[in-house]
Fold:
Amino acid sequence: MPLDTSTYSLALLRVDGRRWNELRRLHAQIRTQDAADGSSYLEMGHTKVMCIVTGPSEQQQQRRGQTSQRDAAAINVNVVIAGFSSVDRKKSGRNDKRIQEIEVTIANALASNLHTHLFPHSSITISLHVLSQDGSLLAALLNATTLALIDAGIPMTDYIAACTAGSTSTYAAGDDSADPLLDLNNQEEQELPFLTVATLGDSDRIAVLVCESRVQVTRLEGMLVVGVDGCKQVKQFLDQVVREKGAEMVREGAVEKSDAMGMVLDE
Amino acid sequence: MPITVLQPQPAAKRQAAAMSVDSDSDSDSGGGAEVHGEDILTPGTVITSNSQWMRGHGTYVQPGETAITSSLAGTLTKTNKLLSVRPLRARYTPEIGDLVVGRIVEVQAKRWRVDVAASQLAILQISAINLPGGILRKRTETDELQIRSFFAEGDLVVAEVQQLHQDGAASLHTRSLKYGKLRNGVFVSVSGIGGGSGVVRAKRQVWTMDVANAGGKVDVLLGVNGYIWISKHIESDTNAEAVGINRMEESVSSKVYSSQNDPLELSTMREIARIRSVILALVENRLKVDEDMVTKGYSEAVELGRESPDDDLYLGGEKGQRLAAALTGH
Amino acid sequence: MPREAEPSLSERTFVTQALEEGLRVDGRKFDQFRSLELTFGDEYGVAEVKFGKTRVLAKVSAEVTVPYTDRPFDGVFTITSELSPMIAPSYEVNRPSMEEVLLSRLLEKTIRRSGALDTESLCLIAGQKCWSIRVDLHVLTHDGNLTDCACLAVVAALRHFRKPDSSIEGETLTIYTSAEREPVPLSWLHSPFCVTFSFFGEEGEQILVDTTWLEEQLRVSTCTYSINKHGELCQIAKFGGAALDAPLFIQCATGALNRSKELTDLVERKLADDAKRRDKGGFMAELTAENDR
Structure:
C-alpha cells in the first residue's frame, strides 16, 4: 500500500494530519516506579515505553560474557518488546539481532555521556519495556533512558534527545520537490526512507545516527537538519518534565532550594 | 582577610537568560513558597562561567572551557567558593560518621562486605567489631576462623561509617554498644537521600519510644542510607551510660552476636508493625522520615486505628493520605 | 574465556598524541586505505579479500528449496557470518559476540534489505520451488575494518557466483549440470559497499578510514555508511559513541560515495580479469587447434 503522496503534495498534510515539521504529542513522566533507583514513562504519539534504572550498584557475581570494568561503571541495557505492542502478536526471542543492536546502541551512546568514572566497580542496569509501537522506537527508547537516568541521579554531560526524520520521496523517485519529514509514525516508516538521530543537549552534535532504508545521499542533509531540529524540541520537552518534577519536589520541601542562581555567581 | 582583585571577566554568554533567572530568584529570596522550574538545574545547564568558583559534586567542566556545568538534575549548593549540585534523588553516598543499617552479603577471610544501598558494597573489617569475651583483646586466628559466628550472609547490622576509600567505598565499624547485629524487629527500606521520601540526616537517628496498647518500648533506628530497623527495646543488664569507657568492651557478651530473637509479645509486634506502616505511609505521601514525623505519625496512627473495630494497622491508600494530611496540617 | 588485553595507558596516549600531530602509527595518511587484494577462487562464488592484515573469505552456494509460505514468489537469501577462535581466543564458537551480531545485521541491511539481489528472480515455481542462496562469511584474520572488508567480500562473491541453469516445461523442473549448460549469474541490481569512518580526539576532529585493530580500540566513535555508486545510501550506522558535529556526517557521506565508486570499479575490473582467465580454458581453447604438449 503506497502512501498517498498525492494528498500530501496537495494539502501538505501527512496521514495523521501533521505538517512536515511537527512532532507527535509527547508525554513523559519520571519517577514512576518506587522500587527502582530511577524510572520513566514516555509516549511519542502511540509509541509507549517504560524505563527502569538500577544502580550504580556493585554486583555480586558478574554474569558471563559481561565485562566488569575496574575503573568505571559498566552499563547493561535490556530491551523487552511486549508481545502486544504491535499489530501482529509476535513473540520476539531473546536473541533477536535487531533488539541486540538497539541495546548496544543505547549502551554505547550512554557510555560516552554518563560520568561512569565516578562509580568504579559498579554497574548501571537499564531495563526498557516497549508497551506499544508506532514508529520512532529507538528514539523513544533513548529519550526514556535519558529521563530515567536523570531521575536516578547519575551524573551526565548533557541530555541525549532523539527523534526520527524522513523524506517524502522514495529512493526511486528523483523528484527534487521532496520534503523532509519529522517524527515518523509506523505507517510512514514502512513507506518512506527515514533515519533516527540523537543529539547531545542543545548542541548540533550527533551521538547516534541510524538509517536503515535506501535513500539518495543528497537527501541526507535535509533529513539531518530536520532531525537535529526535532531533537532540540524533544530536549526542551524533556527538560521541562525534569524541571517541573524538581519544582514540585522543592515545593513539597523534599529538596532544599538553590542557594543562589545565575547572575549572582557571574558577578 | 586578604582582598583579591579579580581580573575583569568577559561578558557572560547567557547574560540575557541569566537576567531573567536572577529576577526569579530575587522574588524567592523572601522565603516564599513559589518555585519555578528555572530554579532547578538540569544536566548540561551552565551554572557560571566565572572562574572564581570551584566545582564540586554534580558539576563538570568541559575540557577546553571554563564554564562550570551541571551534570545532575537538582538544586545548587554554595559552600564558600565551592559550587555543587544537590541531586533531586540519588543513591546513598556514604559520609564519615553516618549511622547506617546494612545487610551482610559476603563473608571473606578477614572482613565482611555489606550492602548499604550505596554504589559500592561497604567493608566491615573483623578488627572493626567488638569481639566477644569480656576483656579488650586482640583478634586471634580463632576469631578469623569463626568469622561466620559473628555475622553471616543475610544478617542485618547497624554500624557507623568509619572512613571512605579513594574509590568511594566505605569502611564501617561497630565498636560501640549501640552498634552490632540487629534482632527482635523488622526491616524497612525506603529510598535513600533526597527524592522527598527518605531518611534525612538529623540530630538523632535512633530513639526509644513508648508505644500505646501496652506494647512496652520500641527502638526505631533510621539508617541514613534509607534502611530502617524497628525492634523491641531490650533493657541492658548494666546501664550502658554507667559503664566507663574502659569497661565498655567487657559488657560485650556473646549474646550480642546471637541470631535468636528474645520472646516478643503480640502487643509489641503489633505496635512495631504499626510504626512500619507509618513509615511506609510517609514515604508514599512523599514526606520526610525523621524522629519528629515518625512519632507524630505514630500517635495519629493510633488514633486512626481506634476508629476501626479491630484496630486496623493498614495505612495505605486513603488512610495514608489522611495521616499525611494530619501531619502536614493541610 | 580469555579476554582480549586492552592497550595500556601509555600505548593509548602515544597513538592519540601521534594522531593529534597528524601521524598514524603505520605511517598512512588519515584518508589513505591499506592495500587491498581481491582474489576469486577456482570455483564460482568464492572471494577472498585482504585489507592489510585483515582477511575475509566468502563462499556462495545455491540449492533448491521450498519458499517461505508468506513469500511464495521470493527466493531465499541468507548471509551467515562466523567469527571463530581463529581470529583471537576471545571469540567463542556458537556464542555470537556482540561484534558478530552487529556485523551480520550490517551486512543484512546493506545487501539483503537494500535489494541488491533480486530475490524474485530466484523463484522457480511459485510457492513450491525456489533457489536458496547462502553466503558463508569466514573471517580469517582480524586487524580492523572488518565490516568494509566483509561487505566487499560478500558483494564480490555474489557477483562472481553462477547458479546452475534451469528450465521449466509444464510442471517438470530441470536443473542442468555445468557440463550440460553454462551456469548463469545471479540477477544483480546494485552493488552497495560499506565505508567506515573512525573518529579520534575530543571532538572527533580526526577522521580516519580503514583503521587497524589498535586504532579501533582507541577511537571515540565510528560511523559506517553503505552506499552504491549511484549515491544511494542503504544504511548509516553510528551506534553511540562521542557526539559529533552534524556537518561531519555530510562530509563523510561524500567520501563514502567516492570510495564506493572506486570499489565498484575494482570489482568490475577483477571480475573481467577472472572471466578472461576462465575463458582461456573454455571457448577459446575449443577454437584453437593447439594442444598442451
Remarks:
- Residues 266-284 of chain B form the longest helix (19 residues).
- The CA atoms of residues 11 and 260 of chain B lie 69 Å apart.
- Helices of chain B lie at 15-28, 141-145, 266-284, 291-307, 317-328.
- Chain B touches chain A through 63 residues (CB under 8 Å).
